[in-house]
């Protein structure tokens, strides 16, 4: 098996030092990196160019607000509100991998409907500035992936200039080319998006975008819905300056918990969520609190970048090897899944799933990204999040229309694991016209292992045929004992 090229520095004539000096993240060009752009980091930065970016985002939102006519011509709505995912930055946060998708009608309608609420901070003077992320707080169906995608599109001109500057300074002529980029920037005089020509790095006939590390984060936007609910449940109301409003909201939350002697976190969160819907001004006070604790956003960004570089880069270099080809998609998928299992269990890849204190730090979708690496070099089509009407399956590996194998990747901690094992893959197989499928399940403790094996036995599934069980425990590995566990 031959080791393969993975990162930007493997494909281009530059070093990690060159990228670090430019403060650009060393992306992978074979699988997306689990990082995304957080607009709060742009707002919070002291850099003049980032201040300009934040003002540019607000200017565009203001433009949309001033032209928010419910009878607006559909072509203009599509032009102003819908964008493709910028796949060329090789960053991932949505579940659609590096194939790109559209910020479509649901997002456009939600943004249009909530523009006045998003921009209200400029007149309410509660928070320092309006924030696009407020849309996530207002609409439960708008998630952080769409916020990140929309932000990336609004700052695309900057990322293009940033990457062009690097290409001109560091890359030889045969590693860069001229590209015309659609919707590069917005012309407020003509109210249209404009194309522009750039000199950019290219790989496989496609341009590549670099992103500065200091606007990237890993797990969530600094302003997010789950944190809002936690803050309200844990005492945000006590910080409100209006005594009458404090008392009124506290009384409402208390009324939702009447009869519950010792409310659990879930019950407190449900009461807090109801209070947020009843008193929407809580959103602005929450955002103000997040602005005041800005150092936490910076710390999470730095930690996320460091953790991603450590676990993702270390893991990819060991997992991304050529695997012997097999003419049948099921046999090929099985062989590659067993290779993935071997890397985790016997080549110490399991260690990158933990932080320095040996707490699990990996997410299910990050495991899915790593799994994609074992299909490098395959002649089969490897499609992620294929949706044929019954919700997307994690992977569909196909050779011909009639030779398709589906793969679902789960952590043993998944609360719906038994239901998924019993029904999910069968539903996907029917929707995709195939009988071939595999589950890949990763466990981290002895208790999780016993639970999973019990479910497998009950459902009469066969290990290494229907299910690949991967042991990522830290307490039963030789290398773990050497580290003092």
In total, the number of strands is 10
Based on secondary structure, the structural category is alpha+beta
Number of domains: 3
Largest sheet: 5 strands, mixed
| Secondary-structure element order, N to C | HHEHHHHHHHHEEEEHHHHHHHEEEHEHEH
Question: Taking all residues together, what is the mean pLDDT?
Answer: 85
Poorly predicted sequence stretches spanning 5 or more consecutive residues: 93-102, 480-485
Q: Can you count the helices?
A: 20
Helical amount among residues, as a percent range?
40-55%
Q: What is the global morphology?
A: globular
Strand content: 5-15%
For the termini, the CA-CA separation is: 33 Å
Strand order of the largest sheet: 6-7-8-9-10
Q: Rg to the nearest angstrom?
A: 24 Å
What does this structure look like?
The chain has 485 residues and is of the alpha+beta class. It has 3 domains: 8-217, no CATH class; 225-279, no CATH class; 322-482, no CATH class. 47% of the residues lie in helices and 14% in strands. The protein contains 20 helices and 10 strands. The strands form 3 sheets. The chain has a 5-stranded mixed β-sheet with strand order 6-7-8-9-10, sandwiched between helices. Strands 2-3-4 form a 3-stranded antiparallel β-sheet. Helix 11 crosses helix 13 (265-278) and helix 12 (243-256) packs across helix 13 (265-278). The longest helix is centred in the middle third of the chain and has 26 residues, at 294-319. It is globular. Mean pLDDT is 85; it is low at 93-102 and 480-485.
């Amino acid at each position: 098996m031959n080791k393969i090229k993975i990162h930007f520095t493997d494909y281009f004539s530059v070093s990690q030092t060159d990228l670090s000096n430019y403060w650009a993240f060393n992306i992978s060009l074979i699988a997306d990196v689990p990082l995304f752009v957080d607009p709060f980091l742009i707002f919070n930065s002291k850099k003049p160019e980032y201040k300009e970016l934040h003002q540019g985002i607000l200017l565009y939102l203001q433009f949309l607000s001033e032209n928010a006519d419910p009878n607006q011509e559909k072509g203009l709505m599509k032009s102003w509100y819908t964008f493709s995912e910028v796949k060329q930055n090789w960053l991932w946060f949505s579940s659609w991998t590096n194939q790109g998708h559209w910020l479509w009608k649901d997002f456009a309608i939600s943004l249009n409907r909530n523009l006045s609420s998003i921009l209200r901070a400029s007149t309410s003077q509660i928070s320092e500035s309006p924030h696009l992320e407020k849309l996530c707080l207002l609409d439960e169906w708008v998630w952080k992936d769409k916020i990140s995608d929309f932000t990336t599109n609004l700052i695309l001109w900057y990322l293009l200039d940033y990457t062009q500057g690097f290409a001109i300074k560091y890359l030889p002529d045969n590693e860069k080319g001229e590209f015309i980029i659609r919707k590069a920037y917005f012309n407020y005089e003509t109210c249209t998006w404009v194309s522009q020509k750039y000199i950019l790095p290219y790989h496989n006939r496609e341009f590549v975008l670099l992103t500065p590390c200091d606007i990237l984060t890993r797990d969530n936007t600094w302003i997010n819905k789950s944190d809002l609910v936690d803050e309200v449940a844990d005492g945000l109301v006590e910080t409100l300056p209006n005594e009458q409003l404090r008392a009124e909201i506290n009384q409402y939350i208390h009324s939702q918990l009447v009869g519950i002697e010792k409310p659990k976190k879930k019950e407190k969160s449900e009461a807090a969520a109801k209070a947020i819907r009843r008193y929407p001004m809580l959103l602005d006070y929450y955002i103000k609190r997040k602005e005041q604790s800005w150092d936490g956003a910076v710390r999470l960004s730095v930690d996320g970048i460091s953790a991603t570089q450590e676990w993702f880069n270390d893991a990819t270099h060991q997992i991304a090897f050529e695997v012997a080809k097999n003419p049948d998609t099921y046999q090929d998928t099985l062989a590659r899944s067993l290779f993935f299992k071997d890397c985790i269990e016997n080549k110490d890849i399991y260690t990158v799933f933990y932080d320095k204190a040996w707490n699990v730090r990996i997410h299910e979708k990050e495991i899915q990204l790593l799994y994609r690496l074992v299909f490098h070099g395959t002649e089969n089509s490897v499609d992620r999040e294929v949706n044929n009407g019954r919700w997307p399956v994690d992977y569909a590996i196909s050779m011909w229309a009639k030779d398709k194998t589906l793969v679902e990747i789960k952590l043993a901690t998944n609360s719906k694991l038994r239901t998924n094992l019993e029904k999910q893959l069968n539903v996907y197989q029917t929707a995709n016209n195939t009988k071939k499928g595999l589950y890949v399940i990763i466990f981290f403790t002895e208790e999780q292992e016993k639970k999973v094996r019990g479910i497998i036995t009950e459902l009469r599934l066969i290990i290494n045929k229907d299910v690949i069980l991967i042991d990522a425990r830290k307490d039963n590995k030789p290398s773990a004992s050497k580290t003092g566990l």
